[in-house]
């Protein structure tokens, strides 16, 4: 599904990603961990196509197609979802109206008509129930006065509605409490299927007790320097990143 080879990317002339490789297949959950400033958020932004970043070398293939030069919108329409994609507060636009628009824009890009209102309502109801989101929440203005946990809930709801092929959840900066952690984990687990894939970026080994990843990668100084299974996360927790640093420089 996603195949990244020798990816180099810079921001303001400063190279952040320095030859990164990763492959994600349908049905897989990958966790990316690594010290502050390693390039984790940069990687997610580069995959999603944020313009500030310049890809200087390497390739990003999504379902066999090179997407490195595509606009962010186009990538989203192809089924790439990134959390914090819409962190802005939009007064007067409800959670529901926002997602309706997003879905219909994607359909338009695929040459489809708007989703009939009754289907849309049915889908909203179904997903809200699945994620235990109450109706009042759906009519609130997007992100306006949302708590950290509510922002997470909204993100997971957007993800559930859009049904992306690849979801990238960057949790690093958000200071999640245990409830928000569970919201994210539940959402990911409930939406997991053999056809979609998830990349979770996290500092919290604890999150991985709830979302069991198939692979754990360590991103260090712009590269994936170590990959393993869930146990790698435990090892990192116990040993810290100095251990990785020693291995990399040895
Ligand atoms: N817009 C920017 N302008 C200048 N430097 C940037 C910008 N965005 C990122 N960087 C730099 O790129 C490096 C990697 O940042 P990035 O946010 O990808 O790290 P991270 O692994 O996500 O860290 P954290 O765990 O703290 O979230 C850092 O040194 C950061 O200062
Ligand atoms: Mg980050």
TrEMBL record:
CDD domains, sorted: ABC_FeS_Assembly
Residue stretches in coiled coil: none
GO molecular function terms attached to this record: ATP binding; ATP hydrolysis activity
Protein's name according to its UniProt entry: Fe-S cluster assembly ATP-binding protein
Domain ABC transporter: start-end pairs: 2-246
Species of origin: Pustulibacterium marinum
InterPro entries per UniProt: AAA+_ATPase, ABC_transporter-like_ATP-bd, FeS-cluster_ATPase_SufC, P-loop_NTPase
SMART domains: AAA
Keywords assigned: ATP-binding, Nucleotide-binding
Family in the record: Belongs to the ABC transporter superfamily. Ycf16 family.
SUPFAM superfamilies attached to this UniProt entry: P-loop containing nucleoside triphosphate hydrolases
Pfam family, one: ABC_tran
